[in-house]
Amino acid sequence: PTVNLPLLPGTPVPLRLFDTASGEVRPTAPGPQAKLYVCGITPYDATHIGHANTYVAFDLLNRQWRDNGHEVIYAQNITDVDDPLLERATATGVDWAELAESQTQLFRDDMTELRVLPPEAYVGVVESVDQVVVAISRLIDSGQAYQVDDDWYFDISSDSRFGSVSSYDLDTQLELFAERGGDPEREGKRHPLDCLLWLAERPGEPSWDAPFGKGRPGWHIECSVIADEYLGTPFDVQGGGSDLVFPHHEMSASLGSVLDETWPFARLYAHSGMVSYEDHKMSKSRGNLVFVSKLLEAGEDPMAIRLALLSNHYRSDWEWTDEVLAVARERLQRWRHAVSFVGGPDAIDTLAAVRAALADDLDAPKALKAVDAWCETQRLRSGEDENAPGTISRGVDALLGVAL
Fold first, then answer.
1. Which of 99, 125, 128, 191 could serve as a FRET partner for 207 with CA atoms 20 to 30 Å apart?
2. Residues with Cβ < 8 Å from 85, sequence gap 6 or more?
3. Are β-strands 145-148 and 151-154 bridged in parallel, bridged antiparallel, or unpaired?
4. Threshold 0.85, pTM exceeds
5. Low-confidence residues in the chain, pLDDT < 70
6. Do residues 230 and 79 make contact, with C-beta atoms less than 8 angstroms apart?
């Protein structure tokens, strides 16, 4: 469901955001429409805190743009057919489509509880196969795709700018490609980094008809196609976790630019940091996951979970601990107590400080401290502004997504 954002007094501040491709904090500078694409989940396990960290981070961006008066067009995919999903379905004896739908719904429910604004286009790969087939056909016709056995690959030499999103050297690219779903050592490929476009039909796996052979889409082209279909290129910001910089965002940008004959694919690439737990990056392969749904079932306030996420800068790598959540609980209690009074110290400067912090590369920890300072002043003495608690409450709601 959508969330209606309160209108706020004062003057919004345009957003500047760190761009992975240039290595600089740059103005986002969207027009009347601001277009955002954030890569979605592969729905074979519920939303963990690492997922939530990413989607709350880009929810801040969405809210900041809206505060600045932009009409935000937000698109997100669901990788609802892929090897990890099919492997989990086989291991658990559940139909792959049912598994995808149930986990996608759980993700929707978790995002609703965390008050993440929904995308305008929330699109599964299975809904986009026809468009993917058209895109691959074009690449084949132009000689930018080739066959290995019955599978189809993208020839990265087709894109002279390949590598400009990550700026990684070849050794790093090869290492990450192998770690993150690539097949650099497959015989018959023109280049080790050429990525899979279409996996030919395998026994017992879902497949779709295509003029170049029955099969299913590769990972990277799905985002190229969905972003172009719902946003057009170039769009303003491509977002996701830092583990998507290479190969996924590199490949998606390369494919999108070749297909559309435009550059850049996205004007800015923004990436959230990784969340660890028990001294290791939170990952499904390791099994060290903290699930949002389990925290909610245990009675945690979703706003405390959101505040815990906001207490770290979105680009930082950090560790989830019981203490992080305990501090967030206490902060939420203080904030709710402070806005429960009639009247309080002037809130306009606090609202301006929150806006300024978020405009500076989504500095949520600094924004939280600005609200903390107002609450401390409120605790020491009530001010003369009878509207102040309401202004703070609406500002925290609209800009930080925290309902008091």
1. 191
2. 42, 43, 44, 79, 96, 99, 100
3. antiparallel
4. yes
5. 284-285, 382
6. no
